[in-house]
Design a protein that fits this description.
Elements (H helix, E strand, L loop, with lengths): L5 E14 L5 E15 L5 E7 L8 E2 L5 H7 L2 E3 L4 E11 L7 E9 L4 E9 L1 H4 L6 E10 L4 E8 L3 E5 L4 E7 L6 E9 L17 E9 L7 E8 L6 E16 L2
Parallel strand pairs: 1-16
Antiparallel strand pairs: 1-2, 2-6, 3-5, 3-15, 4-6, 7-8, 8-13, 9-12, 9-14, 10-13, 11-12, 14-16
């Protein structure tokens, strides 16, 4: 028996995608978990009804879920075990995902040195619709060719550095807020030990990876319409949260 009866529903999604140098998503999808923390006395019945339940594809359920009810009307009906558990996990392939930010990175190799340019900013068409959304812990990693010896880098926000061992530029932006965030750098080539000439990289394709956490938003569009608890004499406290994180996100460098 709990002194205060509560049930919390967390919808946590992560984005996997590959975006080519033209900004087109060539593969992509969403991994999602519906996590429940149940502190309910007795043997209550819980019914979750979703807006956009079609997102629940390739889904696996906790044993407590009544499958026939889900197959009939796409609702999640269950008697919850105590504590935290994953009610359902799903994978939704989708190459039309509307990422809530613009991101570009380009590298050019000139005769004397290379030039790196990165830009990231929120996509207002998405963020203005979801005022509670917060894009945070935004980090850009750009992997450069082994022929880059060093880099002189500057950014408008956050901090940026070049790791000379791994040849990766790491830009910690933090909160991705309204203004455009830009970073640029001059890339210094390694020299040939025989004649001291610069080793200009071939036009090999660099890649960049993103990591971030977005609070208050699920990219798939899934929403909890109602959480009904029946079979009890009390009215429990109910709350839901939405989080979207980066999974494996590869952006080919233009």
């Amino acid at each position: 028996v709990y002194a205060s009866n509560e049930v919390y529903v967390d919808i946590v999604e992560s984005i996997d995608c590959i975006v080519n140098g033209n900004g087109q998503m060539v593969s992509g999808g969403v991994n999602g978990d519906i996590q429940v923390n149940s502190k309910l006395s007795g043997i209550p019945e819980v019914l979750l009804t979703m807006r956009n339940p079609g997102v629940l594809q390739n889904v696996s359920f906790h044993p407590c879920v009544r499958l026939h009810r889900f197959e009939r009307d796409r609702a999640l009906s269950f008697i919850p075990p105590d504590g935290e558990f994953t009610l359902a996990s799903y994978w939704t392939p989708d190459t039309t995902l509307n990422l809530p930010f613009h991101f570009t990175v380009s590298v050019a190799y000139h005769a004397e040195h290379g030039k790196l340019q990165i830009a990231a900013n929120p996509k207002l068409s998405v963020t203005m619709q979801h005022k509670q959304m917060l894009i945070d812990k935004f980090v850009v990693n750009v992997r450069l060719p082994s022929d880059i010896a060093s880099a002189t880098l500057a950014c408008q926000s956050g901090n940026i550095r070049f790791d000379e061992e791994t040849k990766v530029v790491v830009w910690h932006i933090g909160k991705l807020a309204g203004q455009e965030n830009k970073a640029e750098g001059t890339l210094v080539y390694a020299t040939d030990p025989k004649d001291g000439s610069p080793r200009i990289p071939a036009e090999e394709k660099s890649t960049s990876q993103l990591s971030f956490v977005i609070k208050g938003w699920a990219i798939s569009g899934i929403r909890l319409d109602a959480c009904d608890v029946t079979g009890t004499s009390y009215s429990p406290y109910k709350a839901s949260r939405y989080t979207t994180t980066s999974g494996r996100m590869d952006f080919r460098v233009a």
